[in-house]
Amino acid sequence: MKIISTNLGTTTTFLWNGKEEATGIFKYPTEKPIYLGNNNVQNDIVIDRIHHAGENKACYLFSVEEYPYWKRLYPKLDWKWGMFGENLTVEGLDESQIRVGDIYRLGNTLVQVSQPREPCYKLGIRFGNQKIIKQFVKRSFPGTYVRILKEGWVSVGDQLILEQQSENTLSVQQFYRLLFQKEKEPVLLQLALQNPAVPAYKRDRLRKFL
Known about the structure:
Blueprint lengths: L1 E8 L2 E5 L2 E5 L3 E4 L3 E3 L22 E5 L3 H7 L14 E4 L11 E4 L2 E8 L4 H7 L4 H8 L4 E7 L1 E3 L5 E5 L7 H9 L5 H9 L5 H8 L3
Parallel strand pairs: 6-7
Antiparallel strand pairs: 1-4, 1-7, 2-3, 5-11, 6-10, 8-9, 8-12, 9-10
C-alpha cells in the first residue's frame, strides 16, 4: 500500500435544519508531509471532537481504488483527493484483507488499525446529497481509522509496511458490516468482542447483542 495524497481540512460552514454548523470534512491535498499525532493530524481541522479525532480516530485512510466507483455516481462534483474527508488517500487499501489490530510502519510513524469510518450527514454535505449515506453503508468499503503508536511525519509515496498482523481475524470490512447489522452475526460479534484493538466503547455497545 502506498500514500497517493496527504490531505488537510478547512473550516466550512453550512445550514442544517435552520442552524449554522461547521465541519472539517472538506479536506484537500497538501504538497507537504503531514504529522500524525496521538490524537489527530497536526494542522487538520476537527470541529466535532466527540465523534472525530482522539486516540481511536487519530487519522483516516481511504482507498484510491474506490474513487472511480463514486465518480460514476457523482460525475458533476469537483473531484480531488480528500473527497471523503480522509487524511491519507491510499493505493491498494483493501478493507476485506486488513485486520482490526494490524500494525503498520508508515513513514517514520507506527500506526494500528482501529475501526472503520461510519458515515454521518456531513458526508452528505460534502457530496451535496444525503443519499450517499445509505449508498456508503451498502458499498462496504469505508476506509479505516488508525491509532498512532509512534508519532511522526508521512509523505506522498510512503509505503504502509505490515509490522505485525493481528491474531484476531476480524477484518475492517467485517467489523463495518457487523456495526450495521440488525441481527448481529454471532461469529463476527465474538471476534469483535475478543479483539483488544476494537475500541473499548465499541465493545461495550456490542455486548448488549450477546
